[in-house]
Design goal:
Helix 10 (409-427) runs antiparallel to helix 11. The protein has helices at residues 7-21, 35-56, 99-106, 112-120, 157-164, 185-206, 211-222, 254-261, 319-354, 409-427, 432-454, 536-539, 553-559, 566-579, 603-611, 617-621; strands at residues 32-33, 60-67, 83-93, 123-129, 132-145, 229-235, 241-248, 275-276, 290-299, 302-312, 367-374, 385-391, 397-404, 463-472, 479-486, 492-494, 500-502, 506-507, 521-525, 530-534, 542-543, 546-547, 589-596. The chain has 3 domains: 6-69 and 82-94 and 111-144, Heat Shock Protein 90 (2-Layer Sandwich), CATH 3.30.565.10; 186-280 and 288-351, Beta-Lactamase, CATH 3.30.450.40; 359-596, PPM-type phosphatase domain (Phosphatase 2c, domain 1, 4-Layer Sandwich), CATH 3.60.40. By secondary structure, it is α+β, with helices and mostly antiparallel strands. Strand 21 (542-543) and strand 22 (546-547) form a beta hairpin.
């Protein structure tokens, strides 16, 4: 074969000529090998030649020969001509057989080629000679019809190979020997590769956390290795059954096969052995029929579904194949149980986490708001940080941003308790200072009870909280803000002139000292001013030994947000925290931005304000009507 890209095509043509074209009657005595066996041999030799030419860049020699089975023992049936071995060699000429050549030869049969060899060839390997090396494989092929012995002698190696496996014939023409009983291709594959396949399949199935994915993966593993089609039934919550996945070697038959399987549902059984199943009309070639088996999926003494498999044509369901399928069904059942446990726990976790954060945020007239929330735990929607924004009455709104020490489930439970307790106290009329004092008392009491019940290993749960009240001024614009910081990073106020100042004084954490007193700060957030509240996931973001808020780093970032709206400011802070270091964020991250915006008022609102004496003449002359209010703009 030439040392170029034409070598694989020339090899395929040569091998087909040898195996498919040199048959009777042109060559009397030559066997007729099945088309499938020819295709397998062509596929394998094409892969070997492609690898050899690519690695050596020199011409290769391809040799093909047929070998009959050895002569059987005297007490066994005579060898039949229904099977024959095809041996193909790809020989690379070399001046020496040095170790480097050996390593280069071994690389030819790796990756995809090795998988093909393991799946199709009976044996394969590399033979080293003084003149070069030969990569070879032996393929066991079925014959379409046994070669008949004739009175005329056929000479040559081919005839000698088949005469060795044929019993001596007496005078006169001899009839063909009956085919010897031997396992089919799937049976031999199961015997040779079954344990390796079972280990790989068990590992793949065990890694799935969705029961439908387990069913889909099982179908792709079994078809076509051990079956021509398969269907997986799984139990439902109401003790019913549903056909989860159907797989077929011919994808065009999947739809009809699903319809046929849904007609007859399997019954629950706790036996793990396969039982015969009626052949569905769309399970394969209707003219050939086939064999089908049902394997109950049982784990932990409970029935979880049924695996149906079918083989069209002559059955190849040997004992080895059936035992292998039973082992696969057991692993499927355990994988389904694991996936259902995970799904159930994930559903419970999502349900509980949804109660920890508000489902919606209140809209405040005259205040634009933005929230960024990113929990640290993988797969979690809630962590140790929490937030809320809710109305108390028509003129007062409350906001909070908190952080519980820790990231575990216990921290999440404290999150929910604190948020709901704050809402309850605020709606009972407690102001900022009174609310923090009562919440601090509750946190300290809860921590003391936990330590008394579970010991010192329980540890203390501390809470940092930024809590405030907003009272928008619908007449002059802006909003009155009363705020207190209990162990929390101080909020930053961005004025219209670009200056950034802390908006609250720092105080101790909640839950540390039961009788601590907390104090609030008040100021007016004028139109165009922004209040930034963050958790320590932002301020303590690290890059080596440096933190983001070192040397007022967060204030500098906020100063650069002049002219941006609340949502743009929140996104700028979030992106700064992520870009501060190449390492992933290792803490919960929460950002709350409040921006006072001009209040749009209608002419009716202005008239009402004049009647109440709430609008001064200067405001009327100086733009008390904002945003085209006389054209019907909405209040707020």
């Amino acid at each position: 074969m030439p040392a170029n890209e034409l070598a694989p095509a020339a090899t395929r043509k040569f091998l087909r000529a040898v195996l498919a074209e040199r048959t009777a009657p042109q060559f009397p005595g030559a066997p007729t090998i099945s088309a499938r066996s020819v295709d397998d041999a062509v596929l394998l030799v094409s892969e070997l030649v492609t690898s050899a030419v690519a690695h050596t860049g020199s011409e290769v020699e391809v040799a093909c020969r047929l070998e009959a089975d050895p002569v059987p023992a005297a007490d066994s049936e005579p060898a039949a001509a229904g099977w024959v071995d095809v041996v193909v060699e790809v020989v690379e000429q070399s001046s020496s057989g040095c170790p480097d050549d050996r390593r280069r030869a071994q690389s030819h049969v790796r990756g995809y080629a090795r998988h093909l060899m393991r799946a199709l060839a009976e044996s394969w390997g590399v033979t080293y000679r003084h003149t070069g090396k030969a990569t070879w494989f032996r393929l066991e092929c079925a014959l379409v019809a046994p070669p008949a012995a004739t009175e005329r002698s056929v000479t040559g190696p081919l005839a000698e190979a088949f005469s060795r496996g044929r019993p001596a014939a007496g005078p006169g023409p001899a009839g063909p020997a009956p085919p010897r009983e031997r396992p089919g291709r799937r049976g031999e594959w199961a015997e040779r590769e079954g344990q390796w396949f079972l280990a790989e399949a068990g590992e793949l199935l065990a890694g799935q956390l969705d029961e439908d994915m387990v069913a889909a993966l099982a179908g792709q593993l079994l078809v076509p290795r051990l079956a021509d089609w398969c269907g997986v039934w799984l139990t439902t919550d109401n003790a019913g059954l549903r056909l989860s996945r159907v797989w077929h070697v011919d994808e065009r038959r999947i739809g009809p096969l699903r319809l046929a399987l849904e007609i007859d549902r399997p019954t629950a059984a706790l036996s793990t052995t396969g039982v015969p199943w009626p052949w569905p009309r769309s399970g394969g070639d209707e003219n050939r029929g086939g064999s089908a088996l049902a394997f109950p999926l049982v784990a932990g003494g409970r029935y979880h579904g049924t695996l149906l498999i079918g083989q069209a044509g002559l059955p190849e369901l040997t004992d080895i194949v059936v035992r292998l399928l039973e082992d696969v069904a057991r692993r499927m059942a355990q994988a389904v149980v694991t996936a259902r446990h995970y799904t159930r726990q994930a559903s419970i976790s999502r349900t509980l986490q949804r109660r920890q954060l508000p489902t919606s945020l209140a809209a405040i007239p005259g205040v634009d708001t933005a929230i960024v929330y990113e929990p640290w735990g993988e797969g979690q929607t809630v962590g140790g940080d929490f937030y809320d924004l809710f109305p108390v009455n028509d003129r007062r709104w409350c906001f909070l941003l908190g952080d519980v020490s820790g990231h575990d489930v216990e921290a999440m439970s404290v999150t929910g308790m604190a948020r709901h307790l704050v809402r309850l106290l605020a709606r009972e009329g407690h102001g900022v200072e009174s609310l923090l004092n009562r919440l601090n008392h509750a946190m300290a009491e809860e921590s003391a009870e936990a330590m008394a019940l579970r010991g010192e290993q329980e540890g203390s749960r501390f809470l940092s909280l930024l809590y405030g009240e907003l009272e928008p001024d619908s007449i002059a614009g802006g909003t009155r803000c009363t705020i207190a910081s209990a162990g929390h990073p101080p909020p930053l106020r961005l004025a219209t002139d670009g200056s950034v100042t802390p908006a609250a004084n720092p105080q101790m954490l909640l839950g540390v000292e039961e009788h601590a007193e907390f104090h609030a700060d008040s100021f007016t957030l004028a139109p165009g001013e922004t209040l930034l509240c963050v958790t320590d996931g932002v301020t303590e973001r690290r890059n080596g030994t440096r933190q983001l808020d070192d040397d007022d780093g967060l204030a500098e970032v906020l100063h650069g947000c002049m002219g941006l709206g609340a949502k743009a400011v929140a996104e700028r802070i979030r992106r700064t925290a992520h870009d501060f270091s190449t390492e992933p964020i290792d803490d919960d991250l929460a950002i709350l931005v409040l921006e006072a915006v001009p209040v749009l008022r209608t002419a009716g609102a202005v008239a009402t304000a004049l009647q109440d004496g709430g609008l001064r003449d200067g405001e009327l002359r100086g733009g008390g009507l904002r945003g085209g209010g006389l054209r019907g703009g909405r209040t707020g």
